[in-house]
Design a protein that fits this description.
Blueprint lengths: L2 E8 L1 E2 L7 E9 L5 E9 L5 E9 L5 E5 L17 E10 L2 E11 L5 E11 L4 E4 L16 E9 L2 E11 L8 E9 L6 E8 L6 E12 L2 E10 L7 E7 L5 E3 L19 E8 L2 E7 L8 E6 L3
Antiparallel strand pairs: 1-21, 2-3, 3-4, 4-5, 5-6, 7-8, 8-9, 9-10, 11-12, 12-13, 13-14, 15-16, 16-17, 17-18, 19-20, 20-21
Length: 305
């Protein structure tokens, strides 16, 4: 597997008060034709995340044709689970409705933050996403007592399958946490049955975080891309890769991922938060570069053998 980097597509640079910086967690929202919509998260001057989108022409060197004038979603009211920011998660079609799952941020005192998964639903009359509730759809629980993070969802055989991140512990600083990938199932995409099983675990004692799973299924093979980091040589995120026959038991194959940091430029220190998708018989990856999305996002093409 080899990915050819094509272009650095977008980064917010003072576009507006709410779109001041960043371009993190890019996710494709497929459209008819060559112009595709990419949702992402940007930050205001207070570093609070909002969700936005850009329209990109895939047949004209990935040129940005349009930038959302208003936030798709913005932080919740003071005290709510998403009052410190909202970050793009994934989309899922549910009974002819479009669900947008997002990560709500709460800044804390004893630990840096707490995350929960929120849900917004597309209003077909207005064309806008509306938060389904002031409460998260997936929050801390017996299975996930510390914090949870970015989901990815597939629908198979009448069942919604979610892969998501979960903290196993906190420590004195961020590098002391243990963050892994877990799995849940649902029949309605709202009420989730968590299995409390770690399906992508840390490889060694120096690795401490695996996050933002992105899962696709090719015939009988599940493929997952994710971000991982640790202490020492991999102190900033890299993109990893794993395979599975059932979506539950995974084999990490990070050495086969076929993409790494560049020698210089916007993605020379870090690559993270992959979104892999097919378009016009090609497979693409959206991904972030330096600074957890501060440098924006780009696109790569899977080279066929």
């Amino acid at each position: 597997m080899t990915w050819k980097k094509l272009k650095h597509i977008f980064v917010a640079e003072g576009h507006s008060k709410w779109m001041h910086s960043h371009g993190s967690n890019p996710v494709i929202f497929p459209q008819e034709g060559n112009v595709q919509r990419i949702y992402f998260s940007c930050r205001d001057k207070l570093s609070r995340s909002h969700i936005a989108y850009v329209d990109v022409d895939f047949e004209d060197d990935f040129k940005v044709l349009n930038i959302s004038e208003n936030p798709v979603l913005e932080p919740g009211s003071l005290g709510l689970f998403d009052d410190s920011g909202v970050v793009m998660g994934c989309f899922q079609e549910v009974n002819q409705r479009t669900f947008l799952y997002y990560l709500g941020w709460n800044l804390k005192v004893t630990v840096p933050w707490m995350n929960s998964i929120g849900l917004a639903i597309l209003n077909k009359d207005t064309g806008k996403f509306e938060k389904n509730s002031n409460a998260p759809v997936l929050d801390r629980s017996h299975e996930d007592p510390y914090s949870i993070s970015y989901p990815c969802i597939l629908f198979e055989n009448g069942l919604y399958r979610m892969w998501y991140g979960s903290n196993l512990s906190w420590g004195k600083d961020q590098s002391d946490m243990n963050h892994v990938i877990k799995y849940a199932e649902s029949t309605d995409a709202i009420n989730w049955n968590r299995k409390n099983e770690v399906i992508i675990d840390l490889l060694h004692e120096n690795e401490y975080a695996i996050s933002k799973p992105w899962v696709i299924k090719d015939e009988d093979l599940y493929r997952m891309w994710y971000s991982y980091r640790g202490r020492g040589k991999i102190s900033s995120y890299r993109i990893g890769y794993a395979e599975s026959l059932d979506g539950k038991k995974w084999m990490r194959k990070d050495d086969e991922v076929g993409i790494d940091v560049s020698s210089k430029g916007w993605d020379s220190e870090m690559i993270s938060y992959p979104c892999v998708f097919d378009f016009n018989s090609n497979r693409y990856m959206l991904y972030n570069g330096n600074g957890y999305g501060r440098a924006g996002f780009g696109i790569a093409l899977l080279e066929r053998n």
